[in-house]
Design brief:
Low-confidence stretches: none
CATH architecture: Up-down Bundle
Structural class: mainly alpha
Shape: globular
CATH topology: Four Helix Bundle (Hemerythrin (Met), subunit A)
Oligomer: single chain
Distance between the termini: 35 Å
Order of helices and strands: HHHHHHEEH
Strand order of the largest sheet: 1-2
Strand content: 5-15%
Number of helices: 7
Helix content: 55-70%
Length: 160
């Protein structure tokens, strides 16, 4: 059985999980759509964003700031998640990328998403509206209750 620090679980882990659901999954879906449209250049661009943001999620689990300088994040990834930095550096050039290359990259992103989900203490069900992504009411309430007990400020659910 795993044990988790409650503050970490409702702060760093929720932030990483929320970024995974709102940002990374959106980029992953963009990669899929671009592949379907045979737009490999767009697929590479979306894959780059997805991998970079996946790296940010992993760093947030380690307590890294939610708002961070890109250069500092790349330096931190070199130490904490060199696999993601390697995948970023091995992306094919967007304008000459082949479908097989971007499909392989999508497989890597999908595997990284699964690994990150496995590291999170809770999953964050979401729903989409025309105004953006939102956490399920139940999970938002539960996170809020725990944060109240721990005398923490309300979690800022960024929805766009």
């Amino acid at each position: 059985m795993n044990s988790y620090d409650a503050r970490w679980a409702v702060d760093d882990a929720v932030a990483a999980g929320w970024m995974l659901e709102v940002v990374v999954e959106g980029s992953r879906e963009d990669v899929e759509a671009a592949i379907e449209d045979d737009d490999c250049a767009t697929a590479v661009d979306a894959a780059s964003k997805a991998l970079f943001d996946l790296g940010h999620c992993w760093l947030m689990l380690d307590g890294y700031p939610r708002e961070a300088d890109e250069t500092e994040m790349l330096s931190a990834l070199a130490v904490r998640r060199p696999d993601i930095l390697r995948e970023l550096s091995e992306l094919p050039p967007a304008l000459s990328a082949l479908r097989a290359e971007v499909e392989a990259t999508l497989d890597i992103i999908t595997a990284q998403v699964a690994e990150l989900r496995g590291a999170l203490p809770i999953q964050l069900p979401t729903f989409r509206t025309p105004k953006g992504m939102f956490p399920s009411i139940r999970i938002a309430n539960e996170v809020g209750k725990i944060r109240d007990v721990l005398d923490m400020e309300e979690f800022l659910w960024i929805t766009e």
